[in-house]
Amino acid sequence: MAPQAPQRMPKITILDPRDGFYHAVGTPMAHTTKSYIEHPWRTWDQIAELKRPSVSILKGTAVRADPETKRLLYLSSESNGQQQQQHTLDYDFLVVGTGLRRPWPTVPVATTKSEYAMQAGRYIDRLRTCDSVVVIGGGAVGIEMAAEIKHRYPTKQVTLVHSRSALLSSEPVPTEFQYQVLQVAQLGGVNVMLKNRVLSVTEGLGNTKMIKLEDGNHLTADEVIWATSSAAPVTEFLPRKALDEKGFVNVLPSMQFAASIPNNQNHFAVGDVIATPGIRLAKTAIRMGRTAAMNIAHMIVSAERGHGLQPDLAEMRGPNKGLSLIIGGSGAAFDEKTGAIFCGPEVKNGIFGDDMALHRALGALGLPLNP
């Protein structure tokens, strides 16, 4: 049940290096199809719900958070991207949703929509001139990137290289689902090389790349895309004791920091930055954000009413083990509740539609499809 609204509307500050929200699930299509480039990126001023006096948006990057003093040091950037200054921001509640750091082109590196549109457009122009593409990493990101490129450009040679004996080797999914995903990718024309670790990628003749494999063989390609599962969480600004050995934030089911952190009840983390044995999914991240928001509202209302005890808080259920993938013109899904596996174009159409599930993400956020 939704919490009662606070009597006084709290001031909300969004700190982000980008000028808007980006639907990362749409990256494979946005980086292969020019007509889709601008759809996944929604600038802050395109979101009517943020146009309120109580909402402030700061373009910048967090430098250091001090849970004990509840103070954040951040680096702001002007619109020209040249001038940067350090500032401090005092807060009552902190929600960390900074995500993972991945290399281009698996995610944008631009900080403005206009800059991103130009960068993605140039990348597609470059991709169109390539005869061969090698994608390194057989996780969800690598599978979807390789399959989408082959789907959009069927005459190109697309190779997916993975170091393990099965795709999705880092995910808690059954062997049969891994096999079905492999079959769908291969039927779509992707050349999949398993048990092949990439040792190095160097420049070859002309614009070609030389890929050296652990077994001593070499591949050549016009374009190489790194999509390994070693993406790091953006958490350098948090105290080390708040993180696990890989840099992910340890959280309670309420999405609050672990009890060992000062003022942990006022600190929340959501999305890809949290430590979890489950699969990191956009829909789960949205539910985490909703859980954190509800709990903050509960705590504010409780404080307004003078309750000395912390209210009962909403909690996330156990780690997610279901997974759905877009594999070019097809799709694959594993239902963790029933154990059922589904594959085929109808899976893609039913789950993701024709916009890489952008309509689903916006709907879950309560945002219209068209700004």
From TrEMBL:
Highest taxon, organism lineage: Eukaryota
SUPFAM superfamilies for the chain: FAD/NAD(P)-binding domain
Name the record gives this protein: FAD/NAD(P)-binding domain-containing protein
A Pfam family that the UniProt record links to this protein: Pyr_redox_2
Organism: Aspergillus fijiensis CBS 313.89
Gene3D superfamilies in the record: 3.50.50.100
Residue span, FAD/NAD(P)-binding domain: 11-289
Molecular function terms from GO: electron-transferring-flavoprotein dehydrogenase activity; flavin adenine dinucleotide binding
Gene Ontology CC: cytoplasm
InterPro entries per the UniProt record, alphabetical: FAD/NAD-bd_sf (IPR036188), FAD/NAD-binding_dom (IPR023753)
PANTHER family: APOPTOSIS-INDUCING FACTOR 1, NUCLEOTIDE-DISULPHIDE OXIDOREDUCTASE AMID-LIKE, PUTATIVE (AFU_ORTHOLOGUE AFUA_1G17180)-RELATED
